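Action item from last meeting closed. Structure (381 res):
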């Protein structure tokens, strides 16, 4: 890694039919199914969100993946972090897209993996936004050393690829639910990686559990004790957790009741308010990786139970970027995560849509260039 700010974007390898989704949701189901049928839930609610340049794409089509990489280059993005689903005993979902990227060598664009190590449930959202009993679809299992080795061998093929993103020679590997990970997992993978020539092992990154965070402060040190190299704290949470004190939380509780009456989603907050809490003093730590959140709207999946960032705009996105880059420019490893490149079902993406076009891509690029040009000048002195 050089001295420039590096943005790594979360990438969802869905958007194509596969057997399990056919069984669970009906033949041909993809994320686009929910995206396309979304409806506005209140005045000026931007739904449905309609893709522009790439359309309702199918990721099995290689030229689409090339076009995504080209758009990401236009945005100044360093690489994609492909979500990776390993449930134990070799069981994976949606691995075919990444396997094709790996086998074909295309697109020639940097990447890394993030293990989404959680069980899948069919969420039961009631029409009023309340949440019923979920149905387990597939369980995340941790089956011991032989399965950890099998998992490692699968990922090793990616780690050895010249495109794989590394920090000081160590492959970048994010864990979505680190609190559930058996304690011996990391030490075993580190041992095997060093035996395979990665002298600095693997750069394990933990995602802090936001449900256990009070007043927006994460217990970063507990992850360091578990041998993680760095931590991301995605401060995308309910408005109740944004509130910095008891008085404001009480007011939000009243507001929550009013939203039930007015039929506005209970977890709807203006983006301009939310971005104040996306970055804290914790992001100044060398081992804390900030997270860019351009937008979020879960309503295609959960209706009135959705978390929604309302009144998003490219201008506010630039304000959010500036706050993050002002912190990161003073660090040694200037890594930033972008959540997300293409989570359309969560309204969390920067791919072009018919309302904003390439605005988010262009603003990310221009803001990155501004900061990286300044960093180049400092380095050349």
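Sequence:
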């Amino acid at each position: 890694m050089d001295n420039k700010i590096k943005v790594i974007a979360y990438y969802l390898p869905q958007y194509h039919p596969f057997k399990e989704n056919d069984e669970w949701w009906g033949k041909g189901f993809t994320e686009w199914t929910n995206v396309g049928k979304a409806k506005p839930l209140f005045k000026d609610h931007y739904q449905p969100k309609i893709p522009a340049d790439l359309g309702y794409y199918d990721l099995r089509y290689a030229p689409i993946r090339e076009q995504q990489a080209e758009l990401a280059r236009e945005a100044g993005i360093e690489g994609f972090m492909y979500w990776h689903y390993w449930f134990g005993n070799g069981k994976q979902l949606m691995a075919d897209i990444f396997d094709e990227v790996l086998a074909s060598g295309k697109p020639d664009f940097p990447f890394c993996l993030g293990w989404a190590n959680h069980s899948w449930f069919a969420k039961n959202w009631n029409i009023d936004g309340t949440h019923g009993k979920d149905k387990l679809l597939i369980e995340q299992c941790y089956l011991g050393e032989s399965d950890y080795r099998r998992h490692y061998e699968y990922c090793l093929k990616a780690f050895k690829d010249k495109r794989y993103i590394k920090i000081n020679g160590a492959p970048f590997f994010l864990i979505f639910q680190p609190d559930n990970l058996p304690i011996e997992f990391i030490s075993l993978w580190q041992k095997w990686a060093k035996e395979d020539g990665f002298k600095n092992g693997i750069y394990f990154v933990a995602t802090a559990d936001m449900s256990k965070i009070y007043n927006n402060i994460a217990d970063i040190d507990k992850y360091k004790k578990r041998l993680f190299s760095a931590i991301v704290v995605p401060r995308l949470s309910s408005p109740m957790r944004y509130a910095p004190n008891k008085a404001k939380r009480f007011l939000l509780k009243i507001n929550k009741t009013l939203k039930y009456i007015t039929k506005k989603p209970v977890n709807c907050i203006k983006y301009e308010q939310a971005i104040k809490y996306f970055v804290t003093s914790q992001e100044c730590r060398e081992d804390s990786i900030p997270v860019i959140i351009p937008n979020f709207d879960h309503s295609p999946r959960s209706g009135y139970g959705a978390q929604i960032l309302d009144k998003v705009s490219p201008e506010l996105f630039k304000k959010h970027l500036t706050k993050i880059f002002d912190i990161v420019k003073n660090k040694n490893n200037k890594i930033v995560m972008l959540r997300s490149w293409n989570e359309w079902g969560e309204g969390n993406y920067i791919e072009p849509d018919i309302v904003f076009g390439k605005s988010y891509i262009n603003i990310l690029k221009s803001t990155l260039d501004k900061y990286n040009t300044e960093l180049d000048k400092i380095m050349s002195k």
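Note appended to the action item: The chain has a mean pLDDT of 91.
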